[in-house]
């Protein structure tokens, strides 16, 4: 199993130690480093910064939001980053939820699967650079032919030749149909929550995955004296995503927790969060669920639980970054030997 480092998106300010921690991860043998975006920092720019201070670690986006850019703009960024990193870039995409798509980007959020399929197809055509881009989809047209067009658009081919025309594309997906489409059209999958103890949740959706399909699973690692202490921040994170990252009845994370067998608790967490009872929402997160998607407790316990991950389809464990380089060293020892 490989290790990845997840920086995610920035909070109020940029993390002060991005370069030094990433360089340490590279030295320890981490295979990849990933950034993300929500409604603050973007995903591409930090990777350009990291690329200039590293030499071997792969660079990925987990994820770039589809509504933030046209597919051709995303393809341009991918081509650029792949060149400046000497072929280390991996493009991770995701649709995000309606609150972000419509609230932040001012774009419609209907038919996310169909939009994703068109988006990926356009990027692959740009990277292939076989013909000028001529695409007439439901959501994207190249050249544009819709209302307001002056009729002067022409099919174009990328000026810059891609370093790799088979640059890998990953998709962040949670719903069963979305995961199944990911297995069909992408090179890899970026699950937000994955548990080696509940592989049945995704098994059917992944049945159509081709050979070499790469699963990069984020896992919160807390090396602590007790399991209870290690689960506390995991439960805090879950309560925020399950309770607050989406609208009532339209929260992918709430639905996913239900598919893990905790539907009643998921709804209760969301109700408490919406009513401002956030401490109660955190306390409602079942220890069993939080423990199933994380690695917490003493090093010996984490080592034992890694066996289940080794036996799963997951190829890379994506560890959330902190300034604690000692934890990175411990994970490298536990996973890489």
Describe the structure.
With 337 residues, the protein is an alpha/beta fold. The chain has 2 domains: 2-222 and 298-336, Luciferase-like domain (TIM Barrel); 225-293. It is 44% helix and 15% strand. The protein contains 13 helices and 12 strands. Strand 8 (169-171), helix 6 and strand 9 (188-189) form a beta-alpha-beta unit. It starts with a strand and ends with a helix. The mean pLDDT is 95.
Write a concise keyword list for the protein shown above:
337 residues, two-stranded antiparallel sheet, 13 helices, globular
Number of contiguous helices? 13
Going by CATH, the architecture of the largest domain would be Alpha-Beta Barrel
Which shape, going by the Cα principal axes?
globular
Overall pLDDT: 95
- Please report the total strand number as a whole number: 12
Q: Note poorly predicted spans.
A: none
- Give the CATH superfamily of the largest domain: Luciferase-like domain
The CATH topology label of the largest domain is: TIM Barrel
Highest-level CATH class of the largest domain: Alpha Beta
Task: Indicate the proportion of strand residues.
Answer: 15-25%
For the record, give the distance between the C-alpha atoms at the N and C termini, rounded to a whole number: 11 Å
Major β-sheet profile: 8 strands, parallel, barrel
Main β-sheet, spatial strand arrangement: 1-2-3-5-8-9-10-12
Structural class: alpha/beta
Rg, alpha carbons? 20 Å
